[in-house]
Structures are given as structure tokens and as C-alpha cells.
């Protein structure tokens, strides 16, 4: 069959500005340097404005290629999942395909009407009512008023907001808001649908409904779908083919399972925080943190051992030191707290570098994105030497067991081991629950 | 097969104007959204569109008519002449400010959906136009109060309304595009509006400007628009200075062309910069 999307050598460049690190031989910043630098920057900006170029802050301009020579074809009726790490170029690719931004080089040929869903509820206005927002959002997504009117009942029923149609959406609960927004999007009827991460919202039940709808769109109605998601379960369930992006280039294009395994195995099996070497700090500080995950790209499989390594540097001799860290989930809620202080144990009191390793024999956190906060202080309630926030992001996935529904970050924050006993009143006997697989008896 | 869309760098859409027509429904919906949101959570709502011109009219009549004792156009009552200037001026100034900030205000749309960007600033001028229509009823009331009947010239009024629209959209397109790149231009608008109020014949008649300066004065496109309004509304009492009008139209046309050209040049990079 014919290709409906042809991507040829697509590249996209962004310009990034930096403040140069070089401060000269002197440690302090002289006013004359500041004035000189600002004057140079101003002149450069003025010239940029004159030529209609982008103004870049800072005094060093760096090119960043979000996409580099990306080529692939999408055939009619295919559901293509696009996966890759943060910053691999997934979103940039979708933005180019939906004509929001233009490529720097290369081209794309699209045959058919495209609808892109880069966000649920684009253009929703809080002051307008549910009814008004359906028409507004529909028009923004490219539906005609006639189409919307025809499908209005369907949209309202799908979202389940009949009673609140004439209430401004600012009074809606976030769940209702998202349901309404997705309902409009789900009733789009384009030939090509481009979706980004939108399934990561709403309550569990509604997500299932959305997934079902997506299935419908893809398989029964035979439309072409391009989907980007962090949720590997979603990709493996929906997609018929996967494109794995890595640092702006296509690493693998083909089988979904193979793309996911490659994604999980290639690259460094850790997530690292490193203090830049230029910064000199004589106070005790954390110079490096490494979360060693079971899979590549900072992805950790549930139940596997997780190790976190901290390097603490200390130029001044201190008499006491204690260290603690927290693991936060994607809703910024702390789910784990680990500390290393004990009256008998001295931490970081030696000059030089101290390495602390914290090992969790089996990490039983539920799936989702996590990050760390660290606290380095004199005593548990003493002077704070250093505090780091939001470092070492990593992700927990479940590869040990598949379930007929998707794993959900919102379902809980932790999985305890369990044992079920099910007794049947009529037979008056009790027996341990035996699932389809014997290992589901106890976990 | 269906039409093929080609996405590549620096590609000027060949069907730009056709595309714009295809998205006319979005234009309507966005204008309707701006309108219906405008007076939500206000106590007196639409009355704002009436209070502002009336108060301005009173102040200008007292300052320019009573204290400075500037002449009116012919025998027309001073308040009426002032109001005939305030209406196009506030249409122009609110159109200019709405349209200039429109892209920034709709940043979430620009970065998430494709549509011809020209829709956003033009749709926002519609709000200013509706305010203008509401304020127009004040003019009718004041005319009735002075028992002042307009002549046949009133029929030409729509032409000048259109001219006011073009006078505001031209520079607005340029400024709104620049605003995306350089946020400094946000601060330029209030200044232009305030400054423009003094250099445009809003509180006084342009006949007080010495004859030899009038051609130069008409380089301000609002001079032509306001003179035209007065000519239409006050009937024969206000003389139309044709060379000046021609210059104002010329300047307006230049800005519309220039605005569209600059806007289209920068349009493709809006999503990256916003």
C-alpha cells in the first residue's frame, strides 16, 4: 500500500545560549567586565533584531540538533509508536508533522487530513461552559461546526458530563475536565492522527475507555496513527510498528517488541547527577549521585535491586555529618526516605571524598517516574550543608508480569507482597487462590 | 488521491489565502470566544463600552472646548465633534492593543495546533469592533439630544470604519510578530496608544492645524480616519481635506502590506519562540 507519510532526511536545529564560564584569571567579576560583556551582548542582540534573527540570551551560542536526518515511511492503516528517552526528539518530530514548527532541513510529505493531539483540551477556556468549550475545542482541532453538532450527543455521553454542560469548566473537577477534553478529541475523524502522551491523564477507568477508543480508531476504522508515549505498555498494546529515536536519529524502525527491548537495554544503566567541575566549593557537598537501574536509560524493572551511590566531597574538616535522601514520585509526593546517621557512625568527616552506597534489595515501588532530593547536614536537625532537589530522574516499569490492564502510576505508590485466600460459602472449604499462573498466588 | 501537504524549510504556502478561507470557521469561533469571555465576571459588563467614551468626551470637551477654547467644525456642537473622533480612535487603539498582544495571549494554541496564524490577530480586532458598535449608540443618543441630523455623507461611514480597521491591523501584525520574538514590544503598545492620542485630532478638530502642516500631519493615518468620520457624521460642517486623506490611505496601505509581509516571514518560527 502507499505511504501516507514520507519523512525524508528531516533535521531540526535549535539555538541555545550560554553564559560563558570563563571568568579570567581573577576569581571576582569586575564591573568593567560586566559592562563590556553586556555591551557586546546588546550589540549582538541589536544586530539580530535588525536581521530578524532569533535573540539568544547569554554570550555563547550553541547549536542543538533535536532531529538529525530522520527518514521513515508510514503506510496507510499503520499504528506507529515512537519511543525514546527524554530529549530524543519525539516531540519535535510530532510538532513538525503537525505543522506547528518547520524543519531546518529535509521534508515531509503527508497525504490526507491530519489531526494532531499534542495536548488534551488545547484552547479550553475556563470561563466558558462545557457546551461552549466543546465547540471551541472542536474548531481548534479542525472540526467544522456541522461535524461537532452531529457528534455532540456522543461526545457528551462519552465524557459523562451531561449534568454540567452549562457550567463554566473552571468549576469542573480535574477528572471531568480531562474527560470532556479527551471526548472531543476522540471524536475527531481525520485520516491521520498524531498523538502525544495524552493517555497519561485521567482516572484509571477513563484511561481504559480512551485506550479502547484508540484501538477502535486504529484497527476497526483503519486510520493511520502516530503515537508517542512514555508508557511502554500503551505502545506495545496499540502499535503495530515502532520507531526508536536516540539523540535525534532513528536507532531502530520495525518490530514493537524489538524496539522496546532495544530501548530497555542500550545505553547507560543509570541516571547520574554530577556537579560541574568548575564550581569550587569548600563546604561539604555532594559531588556525584548515581542511581544504578536494572535497565538502560534510567529505567528500572520492578522488584529488581536498585543501588544509589553518593560521593560527598569535603574540603574543610567537619566533626559530624549526616546524610539522607528522599524519592519523590511524579506527583511530587515523597514515597521513600532513607537516611544514614547514627551516633557511632561518622559520615564525611574525613577530608577528601566519601562514597555512600544505598542498596534496596528489591525495589517495590509502583511504576512511574521518580526523582531524588538529598540532604547533607551537620546533625539530623543541625546546619544544612547542602540540599539538592529533583536530581537523578528514573523510571520504574514492570516487565516481570503482564496483566490484562495497563500498569498505572496513579494506582498506588508501592506494591506489597500479598497472599489471597478465597473461601466459597456453599462448599464450606477454603483454599488458596490459584491464578492462571502459579506465581500469582503469592507475590 | 487527496491533496499532498509538503512540509519543508522556508516553504511559503502556495495556498496561503485559500487556507485562510478554509479556516474561516476557526476565525469565527475565536472571535466569538474573545467576545463571550470579555465581560465575564464584570459587574456592569457591556456598560464599560459606553462609560469610557462618554467620560473621555466630557473631559475633552471641558479641556479643549471650554478651557483652551478651540473651535469646533463649523456649527457642530463641540461634544459631538469630540465623540465623532473618540469612536474611531478607541476602535483603532483597542484593536491595535488587542491584536498586538494576541499571539502571546494565545501562546498555548500556537505551540500545540496548526492553523494560519493570521487568524489570531484579525479575530481579536472583532472584539474592538463590537465595542465600537456599542459605543456608536452613544453617538446616536447625543445626536438626538442636540437634534443634529447627519447628511447623505453618513452613508460613506462604513468605508472609514474599514479604513480604521486597516489602520490598526497593519502595524498590529508587525508588532504582534515582533512581540513573539522580542517581548519588549509589549511595552511599546501603551506608549503608542497614549502618544497617538495627543498627535491625532481626537480632542480637537484637525482644522486648527496650520494649513502648511496639514499634509505632514496626515502622515498619521488616524488623521484621515478621524477627519473622514467627522465629515460623515457632522455632515457638511466638517470639510474633508482630500490630499491629506489620500496620504493617510497611502500610509495605511503601506502598513498593511508591510505588516502582512513581516508577519508571514516570521510566522513559521512562532512555535519555536513563543
Overview in brief:
The complex is a heterodimer of chains A (443) and B (274). Chain A is of the alpha/beta class and 443 residues long. Chain A is built from eight helices and 20 strands.
CATH class of the largest domain in chain A: Alpha Beta
Considering DSSP H and I runs of 4 or more, what fraction of the residues of chain A is helical? 10-25%
Seen as an oligomer or otherwise, the chain set is: heterodimer
CATH superfamily of the largest domain in chain A: P-loop containing nucleotide triphosphate hydrolases
The whole-angstrom Rg of chain A is 26 Å
Which consecutive residue ranges of chain B, at least 5 long each, have pLDDT under 50?
A: none
Class computed from helices, strands and strand pairing of chain A: alpha/beta
Summing up helix and strand content along with how strands pair, one would put the structural category of chain B as: mainly alpha
Tell me which CATH architecture of the largest domain in chain A applies here.
Answer: 3-Layer(aba) Sandwich
User: Number of domains in the coordinates of chain B?
Assistant: 1
Number of helices of chain A: 8
Q: Topology as H/E string of chain B? A: EHHHHHHHHHHHH
Instruction: Briefly note the CATH topology name of the largest domain in chain A.
Output: Rossmann fold
Distance between the termini of chain B: 36 Å
Amino acid at each position: 500500500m502507499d505511504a501516507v507519510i514520507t519523512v525524508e532526511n528531516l533535521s531540526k536545529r535549535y539555538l541555545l545560549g550560554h553564559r560563558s564560564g570563563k571568568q579570567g584569571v581573577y576569581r571576582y567579576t569586575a564591573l568593567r567586565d560586566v559592562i563590556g560583556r553586556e555591551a557586546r551582548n546588546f550589540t549582538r542582540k541589536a544586530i539580530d533584531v535588525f536581521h530578524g534573527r532569533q535573540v539568544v540570551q547569554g554570550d555563547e551560542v550553541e547549536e542543538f540538533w533535536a532531529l538529525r536526518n530522520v527518514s521513515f515511511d508510514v503506510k496507510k492503516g499503520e499504528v506507529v509508536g515512537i519511543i525514546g528517552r527524554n530529549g530524543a526528539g519525539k516531540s519535535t518530530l510530532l510538532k513538525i508533522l503537525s505543522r506547528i514548527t518547520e524543519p531546518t532541513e529535509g521534508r515531509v510529505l503527508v497525504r490526507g487530513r491530519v489531526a494532531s493531539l499534542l495536548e488534551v483540551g488545547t484552547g479550553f477556556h475556563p470561563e466558558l461552559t462545557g457546551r461552549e468549550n466543546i465547540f471551541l475545542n472542536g474548531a481548534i482541532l479542525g472540526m467544522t461546526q456541522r461535524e461537532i453538532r452531529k457528534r455532540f450527543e456522543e461526545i457528551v455521553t462519552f465524557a459523562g458530563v451531561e449534568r454540567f454542560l452549562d457550567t463554566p469548566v473552571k468549576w469542573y473537577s480535574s477528572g471531568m475536565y480531562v474527560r470532556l477534553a479527551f471526548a472531543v478529541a476522540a471524536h475527531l475523524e481525520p485520516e491521520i492522527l498524531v498523538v502525544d502522551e495524552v493517555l497519561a491523564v485521567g482516572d484509571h477507568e477513563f484511561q481504559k475507555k480512551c485506550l479502547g477508543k484508540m484501538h477502535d480508531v486504529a484497527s476497526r476504522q483503519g486510520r493511520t496513527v502516530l503515537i508517542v508515549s512514555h508508557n511502554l505498555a500503551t505502545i506495545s498494546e496499540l502499535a503495530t510498528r515502532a520507531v526508536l529515536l536516540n539523540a535525534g536519529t532513528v536507532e531502530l524502525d520495525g518490530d514493537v517488541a524489538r524496539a522496546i527491548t532495544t530501548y530497555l537495554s542500550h545505553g547507560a544503566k543509570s541516571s547520574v547527577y554530577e556537579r560541574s567541575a568548575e564550581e569550587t566549593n569548600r563546604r561539604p557537598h555532594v559531588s556525584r549521585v548515581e542511581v544504578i537501574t536494572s535497565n538502560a536509560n534510567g529505567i528500572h524493572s520492578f522488584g529488581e535491586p536498585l543501588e544509589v551511590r553518593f560521593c560527598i566531597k569535603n574540603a574543610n574538616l567537619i566533626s559530624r555529618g549526616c546524610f539522607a535522601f528522599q524519592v519523590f514520585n511524579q506527583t511530587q509526593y515523597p514515597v521513600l526516605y532513607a537516611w544514614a546517621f547514627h551516633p557511632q557512625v561518622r559520615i564525611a568527616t574525613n577530608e577528601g571524598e566519601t562514597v555512600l552506597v544505598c542498596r534496596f534489595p528489591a525495589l517495590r515501588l509502583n511504576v512511574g517516574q521518580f526523582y531524588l532530593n538529598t540532604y547533607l547536614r551537620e546533625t539530623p536537625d543541625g546546619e544544612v550543608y547542602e540540599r539538592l532537589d529533583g536530581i537523578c530522574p528514573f523510571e520504574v516499569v514492570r516487565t516481570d508480569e503482564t496483566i490484562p490492564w495497563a500498569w498505572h502510576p496513579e494506582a498506588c505508590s508501592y506494591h506489597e507482597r500479598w497472599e489471597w485466600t478465597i473461601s466459597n460459602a456453599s462448599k464450606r472449604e477454603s483454599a488458596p487462590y490459584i491464578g492462571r499462573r502459579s506465581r500469582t498466588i503469592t507475590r | 488521491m487527496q491533496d499532498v501537504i509538503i512540509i519543508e524549510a522556508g516553504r511559503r504556502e502556495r495556498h496561503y489565502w485559500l487556507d485562510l478561507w478554509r479556516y474561516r470557521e476557526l476565525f469565527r469561533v475565536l472571535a466569538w470566544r474573545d467576545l463571550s469571555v470579555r465581560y465575564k465576571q464584570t459587574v456592569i459588563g457591556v456598560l464599560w463600552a459606553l462609560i469610557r467614551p462618554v467620560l473621555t468626551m466630557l473631559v475633552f470637551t471641558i479641556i479643549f472646548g471650554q478651557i483652551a477654547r478651540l473651535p469646533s467644525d463649523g456649527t457642530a456642537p463641540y461634544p459631538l465633534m469630540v465623540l465623532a473622533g473618540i469612536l474611531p480612535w478607541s476602535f483603532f487603539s483597542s484593536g491595535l492593543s488587542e491584536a498586538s498582544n494576541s499571539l502571546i495571549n494565545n501562546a498555548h494554541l500556537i505551540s500545540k495546533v496548526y492553523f494560519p496564524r493570521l487568524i489570531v490577530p484579525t479575530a481579536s480586532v472583532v472584539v474592538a469592533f463590537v465595542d465600537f458598535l456599542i459605543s456608536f449608540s452613544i453617538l446616536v443618543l447625543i445626536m438626538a439630544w442636540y437634534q443634529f441630523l447627519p447628511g447623505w455623507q453618513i452613508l460613506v461611514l462604513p468605508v472609514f470604519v474599514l479604513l480604521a480597521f486597516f489602520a490598526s491591523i497593519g502595524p498590529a501584525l508587525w508588532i504582534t510578530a515582533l512581540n513573539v520574538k522580542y517581548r519588549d514590544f509589549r511595552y511599546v503598545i501603551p506608549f503608542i496608544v497614549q502618544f497617538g492620542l495627543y498627535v491625532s485630532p481626537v480632542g480637537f478638530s484637525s482644522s486648527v492645524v496650520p494649513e502648511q502642516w496639514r499634509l505632514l500631519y496626515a502622515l498619521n493615518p488616524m488623521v484621515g480616519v478621524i477627519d473622514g468620520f467627522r465629515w460623515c457624521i457632522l455632515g457638511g460642517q466638517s470639510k474633508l481635506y482630500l490630499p491629506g486623506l489620500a496620504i493617510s490611505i497611502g500610509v495605511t496601505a503601506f502598513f498593511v502590506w508591510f505588516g502582512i509581509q513581516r508577519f508571514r516571514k516570521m510566522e513559521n518560527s512562532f512555535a519555536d519562540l513563543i
